[in-house]
Amino acid sequence: MTSFKPGPDTRRLFRDALGTFGTGVTIVTTRGPDGPCGITANSFASVSLDPPLVLWSVDVGSDRARIFCDATHSAIHVLGAHQSDTARHFAKSGHRFEGLDWSEGETNVPLLHGALCRFDCETVAVHDGGDHKILVSKVLHTTLAPGEPLLFHGGRFGRIHHHD
């Protein structure tokens, strides 16, 4: 058992502690000034059923943060267990869509095909959150498909193993 106070000297340890919380994996997409843009995010959460609100956060140091903070619309794709390569792709490069199966939605936002779920959103608020920006979005439309989710835990992708 390790006990510590989060701070500059324990940044890696704090990040490891946060990584003990398993999450789903999403890719958020939008239309930027230079074309389609995407980013992998595991900081997704539901906020409200009425109105239908969700949130996610983006590192202010990301080269894509400003694009998402300025965007009026986005799509949040909940990835399936078979999409770890896509998650890695958008973790590294957000402007390369060639070779991916996608189309443009009604609000000009890139829509990735094959996700378990997609939330087509309108950004309603952007809040400061330390070294991140917290984006709150109203869900305008949802698409849902069967399948198992891609998970992220301890710095690695994984999947659920069901035991009967």
What is the gist of this entry?
By secondary structure, the chain is mainly β.
CATH structural class: Mainly Beta
- SSE run: HEEEEEHEHEEEEEE
The computed structural class is mainly beta
Please, what is the CATH homologous superfamily? Electron Transport, Fmn-binding Protein, Chain A
Question: How many strands appear in the DSSP assignment?
Answer: 12
CATH architecture: Roll
How would you write the strand order of the largest sheet? 3-2-6-9-10-5-4
User: Beta-sheet strand percentage?
Assistant: 35-45%
Number of domains: 1
Distance between the termini: 32 Å
The DSSP helix count reads 3
| Outline | globular
Query: Unreliable segments (pLDDT under 50, ≥5 consecutive)?
Result: none
Assembly state (oligomeric): single chain
Helix content: 10-25%
**Rg from Cα:** 16 Å
Mean pLDDT: 92
Largest sheet data:
7 strands, antiparallel
Might you state the CATH topology name?
Pnp Oxidase, Chain A
Topology:
Elements: H1 11-18, E1 23-24, E2 26-32, E3 35-41, E4 45-48, E5 53-59, H2 65-70, E6 73-78, H3 84-92, E7 102-104, E8 110-112, E9 117-129, E10 132-144, E11 151-153, E12 156-158
Antiparallel strand pairs: 1-11, 2-3, 2-6, 4-5, 5-10, 6-9, 7-8, 9-10, 11-12
